[in-house]
Amino acid sequence: MNRSEIKDFPMSALRIELDRDGCYFAPDTRGMLNKGLPPDMLAGIEAWAALRIAGRLTHLNMERWAEQHGLSEGRMSVLFRLRKAPEQRLAMNELALGLSTTPRNVTGLVDNLERDGLVRRVPDPEDRRSVQAQLTPAGTEKIDALWRSSVEAQTAVTKRFTKDELKQLRHLCLKLVQLMKEEMSR
Amino acid sequence: MNRSEIKDFPMSALRIELDRDGCYFAPDTRGMLNKGLPPDMLAGIEAWAALRIAGRLTHLNMERWAEQHGLSEGRMSVLFRLRKAPEQRLAMNELALGLSTTPRNVTGLVDNLERDGLVRRVPDPEDRRSVQAQLTPAGTEKIDALWRSSVEAQTAVTKRFTKDELKQLRHLCLKLVQLMKEEMSR
DNA sequence: TGGTAATAATTACGCACTTCACTATGAAAT
DNA sequence: ATTTCATAGTGAAGTGCGTAATTATTACCA
Question: Using the CB atom, is residue A105 less than 7 Å from strand C?
């Protein structure tokens, strides 16, 4: 497999250039947008498009990376949450909430993890409706190794940003999330 | 359906707060990361996590929005690309390249669009292997209406950023993409 | 010219995830 | 105590998107 591609994400087709003000922009995106779009809206749409691209690429990156270890991004997230939980166990609904996904999805993720022996289901003595997922020793070992390796991979990219750029990126992404939250609660 | 949720993305569980320096951060993420992580790496991982959250949310947002018009984000992207193409037609492989996806996926997307009468397949007289997808009048009408509406929806959020913030967001997202491209071509 | 490789699209198949409906249990109310 | 509603988890069915193999056509080249 071609190492310069993520799955079949053909990045060579995605041109990125430096604008005159030293900021990156995607000429194809801009070219398609600036006809028939009021200029004062262009900046917003361009930023949104850039975020969509980065989001998709980071997603594919995580997915592909997890796949090399027999996992998916979702399954890895489950292991990670469990690793940080007290006694390395969480109820299914707590997992769903923490991962911002549906209970049904957690069922499927835990199904797979249990099949691979990384997690086991244990009944909750306090509430007979509830099922808890708990890391097995194999699961703990796996996520620890994966976590070190994952941090390394992410840092290989983020270390080429300045501290301030990283803070800005975090700030702007979360600001967008925050505004979307507000926007939707009307 | 609860208007404050996107699909089943339970955003209420995702706390976002202002740090002392006036920047947003996710306390849960930071809490889980800052044990067992060298502080000089924290900023990078935190930014990465924020981008993943924003990416997921914007994706779900687009998906949900397109769904209200009987489409998916992928199908809408196909219509959009075709709309900007000369004669409103493109070969399947050109579509795959432009959308950064696989030929197989384009086949499926065009299948659906053709079934709904928004697109039709036409043979390429120059190359009998090639099949082109072309917008029907109904497709043109649909994407034009959708585009106006979509710009409106995105602008409702992005207008609450300053011009400079939008430029920074675009710049940082694309810089990340650019660095990932470079990082992977080794 | 004939044989081989490359390319375009598709079929067959699998995985991850979603929605909807359902069962089991707990909590609350009268 | 029984009815009612909320909560926890899961089965069934459908969608979107991925890989691998297949078919048809074109390009290349000795």
Answer: yes
Chain A 107-166 contacts with nucleic strand D (CB below 7 A): 107, 110, 121, 124, 127, 129-132
B85 Cβ contact list (under 8 Å, min separation 6): none
Those residues with Cβ within 8 angstroms of residue B22's Cβ, 6 or more apart along the chain or in another chain? none
CA distance B69 to B67: 5
Closest nucleotide (C1' vs CA) to B75 is D16
More confident call, A48 vs A66? A48
Average pLDDT value over all residues in chain A:
88
Contact B81, B98 (CB under 8 A): yes
Give pLDDT tens digits for A164-184. 999 999 999 999 999 988 877
Please name the residues in contact with B76: beta carbons below 8 A apart, sequence gap of 6 or more. Answer: B62, B66, B69, B143, B146, B150
Name chain B contacts of A82, Cβ cutoff 8 Å: none
pLDDT tens figures, A49-108: 999 999 988 888 888 888 888 888 899 999 999 999 999 999 999 999 999 888 999 999
Give the integer Cα–Cα distance in Å for A146 and B112: 39
Our CA dihedral for A119, A123, A128, A130, rounded to 10 degrees, sits at -20
Gap from A16 CA to chain B (nearest CA, Å): 7
> Residue B66's pLDDT is what?
86
Percent of chain B with pLDDT over 70: 92
In terms of CA atoms, which chain A residue is nearest residue B165? A172
- Joined together, the tokens standing for residue B148 give 């106006």
CA–CA separation, B65 and B70 (whole Å): 9
In the prediction, which pLDDT does B178 show? 92
Strands (E), chain A: 17-18, 24-25, 89-91, 119-123, 131-135
> Which of A15, A27, A40, A47 has the alpha carbon at shortest distance from A169?
A47
